[in-house]
Amino acid sequence: MEDIIVVEGTHDEIKIKEVYPEANCVITNGSEISEETLRYIKELSKTHTIIVFTDPDYPGERIRNKVQEIVPECKHAFIKKKDAHSHNNRKIGVEHATADVIRECLENVYDNTKLGTVTITNIDLYELGLNGNSNSAELREKISDMLNIGRPNSKTFLKRLNLIGITKSELEDLLCKIK
Predict the structure, then answer these.
(1) Bridge partner residues of 6 (DSSP)
(2) 118 burial class (0-12, 13-18, 19+ CB within 10 angstroms)?
(3) How far apart, in whole angstroms, are the C-alpha atoms of residue 25 and residue 95?
(4) For 60-109, what is each residue's pLDDT tens digit?
(5) d(Cα 6, Cα 94) in Å, to the nearest integer?
(6) Which residues have a Cβ under 8 Å from the Cβ of 24 and sit 6 or more positions away?
(7) Most exposed among 26, 43, 53, 111, judged by the fewest C-beta atoms under 10 Å?
(8) How far apart are CA 72 and CA 74, in angstroms?
(9) Whole-angstrom Cα distance, residue 152 to residue 137?
């Protein structure tokens, strides 16, 4: 694997190397990713594909956004929250996932080639009940799990749907499967 995988900590790297021993990782040391690390990732992006693979929580999203800012062409691997729980269910992170889950996540990365392409709008989300209703968050969560795009808030959900090119009719089909 010649790609560079951006992870939060050393335990994440260890878990990835169990599945891909030759994997190259950059560790951010948490959400307070340093400017030096960001510059290093930017430099690596000149010769390697960058894949952001962070925990499905706020700090993980913060790192993802910071890397996205400096390397707009980076790719994204998402892990479902339910697949990232520790044995005692007190912690969440890539390090707690099984080898099969890690493999699945890294074999199904999303790239940013569609970034800026609008396939669905906020109005579409509202019309479909995915925004502005009492059960909108629950519906977004179920669809996010089906698409393996993490567990984003409404704004990020819209961004990720456009990232993967989901149309309104495809979203309607997913909603039918849920209901």
Answers:
(1) 26, 52
(2) exposed
(3) 13
(4) 989 998 999 999 999 999 998 888 887 887 888 899 999 999 999 999 88
(5) 11
(6) 1, 2, 3, 4, 5, 48
(7) 43
(8) 6
(9) 9
Q: Which two tokens stand for residue 143?
A: 């669809």
Contact indicator for 150, 144 with CB cutoff of 8 Å: yes
- Give φ, ψ of 76 to 5 degrees: -130, 135
Q: What is the mean pLDDT of residues 103-119?
A: 79
The residues near 99 (Cβ < 8 Å, ≥ 6 apart) are 15, 18, 19
- Write down the H helix ranges in the chain: 10-19, 35-44, 58-70, 99-107, 122-127, 136-147, 154-164, 168-178
Rounded to the nearest 10°, the torsion over CA 28, 29, 33, 39 is -40
Delineate the domains of the chain, giving CATH numbers in brackets: 4-107 (3.40.1360.10), 122-178 (no CATH)
